[in-house]
Amino acid sequence: MKTYPIPLIPGPTRVPKSVLEAYLTDYGSGDLEPEYSDLYAETQSQLQHIFQTKNQFAIMTGEGMAGLWGAMKSCIVPGDKVLSVASGIFGYGFSEMAAGLGARVKTVGFEYDCIADSDTVEAAIKEFQPKMITAVHCETPSGTLNPIGEIGELVKKYQVPLFYVDAVASAGGTPLATDAWGIDLCLGGSQKCLSAAPDMALVSVSNRAWEIIEKIDYRGYDALKPWRSALANSWFPYTPSWHSTASLSIACGLIIAEGLAAAIARHERVAAYCRQRIESMGLSIFPRQESSSAPTVTVIQVPHGQDWDTLNTKFRKLGLAVGGAFGPLAGKVFRIGHMGSQAEMELVTEGLDVIEQSIAG
Ligand SMILES: *Cc1c(COP(=O)(O)O)cnc(C)c1O
Questions:
Q1: What pLDDT sits at residue 1?
Q2: Which end of the chain has the lower number of beta carbons within 10 A, N or C?
Q3: Which domains does the chain have, with CATH numbers?
Q4: Is there an atom of ligand 1 within 6 Å of 189 CB?
Q5: Is the CB of 168 under 6 A from ligand 1?
Q6: pLDDT per residue over 12-36, tens digit each?
Q7: Using CA atoms, how far apart are residues 129 and 160, in angstroms rounded to an integer?
Q8: Per-residue model confidence as pLDDT tens digits over 94-140
Q9: What's the 153 CA to ligand 1 centre distance in angstroms?
Q10: Cβ distance 254 to 344 under 8 Å?
Q11: How far apart are the CA of 114 and the centre of ligand 1, in A?
C-alpha cells in the first residue's frame, strides 16, 4: 500500500498537507532569484532555533545520508583518528564509514539495548586521543537516546577537535543543545521529527569545524566547504531545490508555532503512554532501562512464539504501518515511530489498539 490510515513508521513520517503543498508552486531558479536566498536564510534561522545553535547550516538537497557522508568526507583524511561511540546500527555504521575513508577507528561499543556509558568513553578518549568523536543521539533502530551532553563534556575536557553527532531522529522531538553540548557537526534530516519529505539533509557546522573543512578542501557533490559562503554570495554548489527548502521551512514553522518546548513535551507524553500501553499488553520494551528510551520511537520485542512477518501482515490489514527491523535486530523487534506529526495521542492510541487486537488472536 502507498498510504496507511495509521502511519507509525519511524521515518519517513506523515507529511502535513501544508508542508506538501509547497511543492505545487512553480518556483523560478534558486540560483538567480534573491527570494531563494531570503528563504534559505529564514530556514537556517528556524533550524538554528530547533537545534539550539548559532552555527551556520549546510542545507543540502538529498536525504540524511548525503549529509552524513558529506560531513565525514569533509573533515577526515586517511590516517586520522576517529573514536566512534556506538550503541546501535547507526553508531556502528559511523565506524565503518570512517574506516572506509582510511581513518584509524576505535569503536567504543555497547549492546544495542543500552546507551553509551561516559566512563567507558572517557577511558577510550584518554587512551586513543582522537581527532573526531562520532555519536548518534537517537538510535532509531533500537529506540534509545544517548547522553550526548555527557559525551560533549568529555570533548571539552580532553580538547577533542571535532564532535560529530547524528541527530536525525531527535531534532525537533527531544531537547538538543547543539552549542551547549559542544557539537561541531550536527546532522539532521527532513523526514523524521520535522515531518517533511525525505529530500533534505542539514548539517550545522561550528567555526572550528569550518577551519578543518577549509584545510582538508574535500571536493565532491556532498562537500560541505562551498556551503560556508553559499548564502553570503548567493552562490550555491548546485541548483537548490526551492520546493524542498520551502517545504522544510513550512515544516519548521509548524514546530516553532507550536513552541519547541511544547513539541518536545508532546513527544514525551505520547512516548510514555506508548510504553505503558505496550507493557500492559504483556509485551516487552527493547531498551533494557526505561531511562534509555527515546521519546521519538518505541522499540518492542516480537513476542515469543510469534513470527514478525505474520504479525506485520495482521497490522497492515488493519491499516497500521509500523517499522520492522534490520541488521542484527531483524525479526526480533518492531518499532513504533511517534515522531513529528505522528506524535499524536489519538493516532498512537489507534495504532496501539490494532497491536493489542493483533497479538490477542
Ligand atoms: C533515518 C536516519 C538517518 C537517515 O537514514 P535513512 O535510513 O536513509 O533515512 C540517519 N541517522 C539516523 C539515526 C536515522 O534515524
A1: 83
A2: C
A3: 6-13+260-360 (3.90.1150.10), 17-257 (3.40.640.10)
A4: yes
A5: yes
A6: 999 999 999 999 999 999 999 999 9
A7: 7
A8: 999 999 999 999 999 999 999 999 999 999 999 999 999 999 999 99
A9: 25
A10: no
A11: 19
Q: Which amino acid is at 218?
A: Y
How many angstroms separate the CA atoms of 259 and 347, rounded? 21
Question: Does the beta carbon of 12 sit less than 6 angstroms from any atom of ligand 1?
Answer: no
Does 90 sit in the ligand 1 pocket, CB within 6 Å?
yes
pLDDT at residue 340 in the model: 98
Q: Is the pTM of this model over 0.85?
A: yes
In the numeric block, which cell numbers belong to residue 9?
513508521
How far is the C-alpha of 229 from the C-alpha of 242, rounded, in Å? Answer: 18
Q: Which amino acid is at 45?
A: S
Cell output for 54: 548559532
Q: Whose CA is nearest to atom 4 of ligand 1?
A: 64
Can the peptide bond before residue 12 be classed as cis, meaning omega within 30 degrees of 0? yes
Residue 11 alpha carbon to ligand 1 centre in Å: 8
141 alpha carbon – ligand 1 mean position (Å)? 9
Whether 134 lines ligand 1, by a CB cut-off of 6 Å, is no
